[in-house]
Amino acid sequence: MERRPAKVRPMGTLDFWFEFASTYSYPAAMRIGALAEARGVTVRWRPFLLGPVFKAQGWDTSPFNLYPNKGRYMWRDLERICAALGLPFVRPTVFPQNTLVAARVALTALKQSWGEDFCRAVYHDEFGEGRDIGEPFAIADIVNGFGQNPDAVLEQARTDAIKNALRAQTEEAQRIGIFGSPSFVTADGELFWGNDRLEAALEWAKR
């Protein structure tokens, strides 16, 4: 797939591309806010779906499921990372989870002040408590925790506008060459992949 440059944005900004089913996006989501603030970098949270990205590569599930040794390593590695960061970790029973509703609600919430906190809460429930965020009631509980009306938020997330926005965002991720999550794209189009590349992405963004 041809990689096209991202739209030019002011330096000191970073696009954080994430999929809620992504394991390594959990620590990245929990770290990025404080790290970016300390460096004076503005972060744009960009939820997307990995399913179409994987399908384009000929995969019908996560590579961590396709390659068992890689999967075993990933779970142990994530356990170590979370322990080092003081993050709770419970391996979900279902992996990868259905994140369509969560991603649509995130697009809705990110238009408001509670969007980033919502995203972190989803990751906490999924990988910190082992909840199945594919269940609508699980997302409703998170929304309610922010003092929002779950019925109203979920109804908005089901609108064509939000569905089309998520589809367009996923297509944009593919156009700029994103193949996994978490990914970070700087204003000049530089792509960094993986939780362990977050600091490097932030340093590049502030140059």
List keywords for this structure.
Glutaredoxin, four-stranded mixed beta sheet, 4 strands, 207 residues, globular
How would you portray this structure in words?
There is one protein chain. The protein has 207 residues and is α+β, with helices and mostly antiparallel strands. The protein has a single domain (13-205), classed as Glutaredoxin. 53% of the residues lie in helices and 9% in strands. It is built from 10 helices and 4 strands, in the order E-H-E-H-H-H-H-H-H-H-H-E-E-H. It has helices spanning 25-39, 50-56, 63-66, 68-85, 100-109, 115-128, 136-145, 150-157, 160-175, 198-205; strands at 13-18, 42-47, 183-186, 191-193. Strands 2-1-3-4 form a 4-stranded mixed sheet, with helices on both faces. Strand 1, helix 1 (25-39) and strand 2 form a beta-alpha-beta unit. Helix 1 runs parallel beside helix 10 and helix 5 (100-109) packs antiparallel against helix 6. It is globular. The protein starts with 12 loop residues before the first strand and ends with a helix. 32% of the residues are buried. The model has no long low-confidence stretch (mean pLDDT 94).
